[in-house]
């Protein structure tokens, strides 16, 4: 398999501030999941107005995260994600950068909770093949820091070929799927 496009490394504090905004983060992740959509289509998906989404999409475009697609006619202006994913890296030792990273992680965590609850609430709307294929698993591991880093790289290598913004020719019955992976030392109270 050829080399997959890299995730965008996020180190700029202003960009992290933009990504900590729940609507902007939701818009970007929505476009990364489903492909090009208009501001009106985005508004339906993220629970906002088309004009509000349009403004926030333009803000994301200033950071190079989204872009208008070919064929935009001014009235129906579809947008698409301009990145295949984001990488914030390890938590920074700098308190300001660390606070910005934590804000981005908090926004992502809140959206993950929303998507998980939406799945649980509406799983009856799915066919049995999708309910059977879905997974809400958790594991308690005993690993070294090196083993955890290696495991994380392996999981990334398994998932990346299926990333919506990378996969060029999915089968006709494929649909957007949320997959989250968290791995960190368990800290007791």
Please outline what is shown here.
The chain has 189 residues and is mainly alpha-helical. The chain contains 7 helices and 4 strands, in the order βααααβββααα.
What brief labels describe this structure?
single chain, mainly alpha, 189 residues, two-stranded antiparallel sheet, 48% helix, Arc Repressor Mutant, subunit A
Description:
This protein is mainly α. It has a domain at 8-126: Arc Repressor Mutant, subunit A (Orthogonal Bundle). The protein is built from seven helices and four strands; from the N terminus they run E-H-H-H-H-E-E-E-H-H-H. It has helices at residues 13-20, 22-34, 39-46, 50-62, 95-122, 128-133, 145-159, and strands at 8-9, 66-68, 79-81, 86-87. The strands form two sheets. It has a two-stranded parallel sheet. It has a two-stranded antiparallel sheet with strand order 2-3. Helix 1 (13-20) runs parallel beside helix 5 and helix 3 packs across helix 4. The longest helix has 28 residues, at 95-122. The mean pLDDT is 93.
Fraction in helix: 40-55%
Apparent shape = globular
What Rg is obtained from the alpha carbons, in whole angstroms? 18 Å
Largest sheet: 2 strands, parallel
As laid out across the biggest beta sheet, the strand order is 1-4
CATH topology of the domain at 8-126: Arc Repressor Mutant, subunit A
Report the β-strand fraction as a percent range: 5-15%
CATH level 1 name of the domain at 8-126: Mainly Alpha
- Summed up, the helix count is 7
> Which CATH architecture of the domain at 8-126?
Orthogonal Bundle
**Which structural class matches the secondary elements?**
mainly alpha
* Average pLDDT figure: 93
């Amino acid at each position: 398999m050829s080399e997959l496009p890299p995730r965008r490394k996020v180190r700029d504090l202003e960009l992290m501030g933009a990504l900590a905004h729940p609507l902007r983060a939701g818009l970007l992740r929505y476009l990364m999941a489903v492909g090009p959509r208009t501001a009106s289509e985005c508004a339906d998906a993220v629970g906002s107005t088309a004009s509000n989404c349009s403004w926030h999409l333009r803000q994301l475009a200033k950071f190079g995260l989204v872009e208008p697609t070919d064929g935009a006619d001014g009235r129906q202006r579809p947008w698409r994600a301009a990145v295949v994913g984001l990488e914030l890296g390890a938590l920074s030792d700098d308190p300001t950068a660390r606070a910005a990273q934590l804000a981005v992680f908090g926004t992502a965590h809140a959206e993950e909770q929303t998507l998980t609850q939406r799945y649980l609430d509406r799983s009856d709307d799915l066919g049995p093949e999708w309910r059977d294929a879905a997974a809400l698993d958790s594991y308690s591991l005993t690993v070294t820091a090196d083993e955890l880093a290696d495991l994380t790289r392996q999981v990334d290598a398994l998932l990346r070929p299926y990333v919506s913004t990378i996969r060029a020719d999915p089968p006709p019955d494929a649909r957007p799927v949320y997959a989250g992976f968290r791995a960190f030392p368990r800290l007791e109270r």
